[in-house]
Design brief:
The protein is of the alpha+beta class and about 280 residues long. The protein has eleven helices and four strands, in the order αααααααααββββαα. Helix content is about 60%, strand content about 10%. The longest helix has about 35 residues. The protein is elongated and about 95 Å long.
Length: about 280
């Protein structure tokens, strides 16, 4: 058996570093780093057979679909709710494991790689449950829930009503308006009123411009509309938080299977990295 001095002489760690550069994912790089020389002829022959089959696979079928695979295990070690971005991160990793599993299971003539694929749990049910919540780039879908869709529809209508009201006020007080613009101050829609005409438009003064030429006023006619919109924004945040908790809980139900899937996928990435380096 090789001791640490022998491994240093052979620059084994340097070789592993070079191989790890060919790995496409964090789990793959970690799996490469765990590699140690085998100690029996049988283990050596088995490892050589795995490597040979992987080289033959990517020469014939192409490289494994590894996009999105990452080390998500640390997320499950915390006792906190995953936020939407973190949940998407996990879902992408799961998708990668399932793509690898399916690619290897549908290919003929790769019995050794098929055993790796069979060791990846089928997480299709999890993806079915979670895919409907995400857009292609990982954002929360507008239709993530019927309630969220309804809230956002009401928000759209309320914003349109505010715009109409403020536009009408500016048209009726054109001489008092610095510029015919509707601006946001905080979560409130306001209009810029000339300093010299501040009393021409009654309402709540939120801010003065940097130049001092105008005040940003929330007209009285818009206050209740702005209040309604503020209430809808609160409802939206609450619904998003509810969805976030639900998606996180759904993912946590499968955390053991996800850990196994990403670990096996990492081993496959490491094996492919060895094959690419060998080539």
């Amino acid at each position: 058996m090789l001791n640490s001095e022998s491994l240093t002489t052979l620059e084994f760690d340097r070789v592993l570093t070079l191989v790890a550069m060919e790995a496409k994912s964090a789990p793959g790089k970690k799996a490469v780093a765990r590699r140690r020389p085998v100690t029996t002829v049988a283990e050596c022959e088995s490892a050589q057979a795995d490597l040979g089959e992987m080289v033959r696979y990517f020469h014939t079928e192409g490289l494994l679909p590894l996009a999105g695979l990452d080390d998500v295990a640390p997320m499950f070690s915390r006792e906190t709710v995953l936020d939407i971005e973190e949940s998407w991160h996990v879902v992408r990793s799961v998708r990668a494991t399932q793509a690898m599993r399916e690619a290897l299971l549908r290919s003929d003539g790769y019995a050794r790689l098929e055993k790796f694929a069979q060791a990846i749990p089928d997480l299709g049910e999890l993806l079915t449950k979670t895919n409907k919540y995400f857009t292609r780039d990982g954002k929360l879908r507008e239709e993530a829930s019927a309630e969220l869709r309804a809230i956002r529809a009401r928000m759209h209508g309320k914003r349109a009503a505010i715009q109409r009201t403020l536009s009408d006020i500016m048209n009726r007080n054109a001489e008092s308006i610095q510029e015919p613009l509707i601006v946001m101050r905080g979560d409130r829609y306001c209009i810029p009123v000339r300093s010299a005409h501040r009393n021409a438009v009654t309402g709540i003064l939120h801010e003065r411009s940097g130049s001092g030429a105008s005040f940003f006023i929330e007209p009285m006619a818009a206050i209740e509309l702005n209040n309604d919109l503020a209430d809808l924004l609160i409802q939206e945040r609450e619904e998003i938080a509810r969805i976030t908790r639900f998606v996180s809980a759904t993912i946590f139900e499968y955390h053991e299977e996800i850990a196994v899937a990403t670990n096996v996928a990492g081993e496959l990435d490491a094996l492919q990295a060895c094959g690419v380096f060998h080539d």
